[in-house]
Amino acid sequence: xxxxxxxxxxxxxxxxxxxxxxxxxxxxxxxxxxxxxxxxxxxxxxxxxxxxxxxxxxxxxxxxxxxxxxxxxxxxxxxxxxxxxxxxxxxxxxxxxxxxxxxxxxxxxxxxxxxxxxxxxxxxxxxxxxxxxxxxxxxxxxxxxxxxxxxxxxxxxxxxxxxxxxxxxxxxxxxxxxxxxxxxxxxxxxxxxxxxxxxxxxxxxxxxxxxxxxxxxxxxxxxxxxxxxxxx
Length: 232
Description:
Layout: E1 4-8, H1 12-24, E2 28-32, H2 35-45, E3 49-53, H3 61-68, E4 76-81, H4 85-93, E5 98-102, H5 106-122, E6 129-132, E7 135-138, E8 143-146, E9 149-150, H6 155-166, E10 172-173, H7 174-181, H8 192-204, E11 209-214, E12 218-223, H9 225-228
Parallel strand pairs: 1-2, 1-3, 3-4, 4-5
Antiparallel strand pairs: 6-7, 7-8, 8-9, 10-12, 11-12
């Protein structure tokens, strides 16, 4: 049975765009165009995930999120303006599971919908073993190996690498990484991410796993298939 996604936005062209891309991926898509209608649809249709715009008439997205979290744990991805950091932080503090900034690439939104659903449905408990290429992390044991050999990581290096592995192939901006690894109450310089990425790159040098820079946005972890091929 396909997962049902409720898309909530007062801009109908955005709803149609998101519906098109999600439907192509096999999702059952419903829509609402303001906050009050969204709450009604949630109670009547029981979606598996909600894509929720922040700026809406009648009732804004943050109010909807606050109201839903009183009775429901349905996964929520909020849509925010690119420069509105306050909405991102408040949304996450209210219980949103992820956010996407406008304007957005619909393919990235679809990827994030899939990632959040994987975590909420098939993985009630976080995956204990994370693997990509020749890298393996045992999360409960806090153990890491590269090419079968122990890989020594600082605590935050381990957590940062785990965040990348859980979102393999997806672009992670610095703010998202800070929230995942350091928490909402971190008030340091976001460039600490750059420092930790540099350390990880040194330790992953020569492996099939790479942390790529996506200029102007952040980073993503990819596996270089060619690097996995045995040397002749």
